[in-house]
Fold this protein.
Amino acid sequence: MEAPHSPAAETAAATASLSVESPEQMQELGRRLAKLLRPGDLVMLTGELGAGKTTLTRGLGEGLGVRGAVTSPTFVIARVHPSLTGGPALVHVDAYRLGGGLDEMEDLDLDVSLPESVIVVEWGDGKVEDLSEGRLHVVIHRVVGDTDDDRREVALHGFGARWSAVDLSAVGA
């Protein structure tokens, strides 16, 4: 019998760490990351409430050239932003209120959207890893004890063959 998938046991194919000093820089990071994304990419965002996940996604939407204001989809669970430029749509999911893991995520039919879209999932840890063979996991930490509440440390982890040839450190340049 095959062992169940264990995301914690995986090793990232690409990694990078950077500091973000303001919400504007977080949004700019999203715009820079968008240049690396292509249809079929899964992006997982991890961070406490107010860490900047939606701000980063807003930048991703700008970088991808999608329609509509990117706001937190907490109460609608998922929101689709079609491309205005012929690129992939952005599917923005907030899995915070979903507790059932992949079963509940399957009800959203994300696997149908994935091949032609970029799917960004906030609070997706332990829920969406099996949607794709590869993913970009963005972990955002507030800098504790800092006098500037806007400062964040961001870790980028690319998993799978898709990300093995991507230089994530170039995003911070």
Notes: The first strand starts at residue 14 and ends at 20. The longest helix spans residues 23-34. Residues 1-6 have pLDDT under 50 and may be disordered.
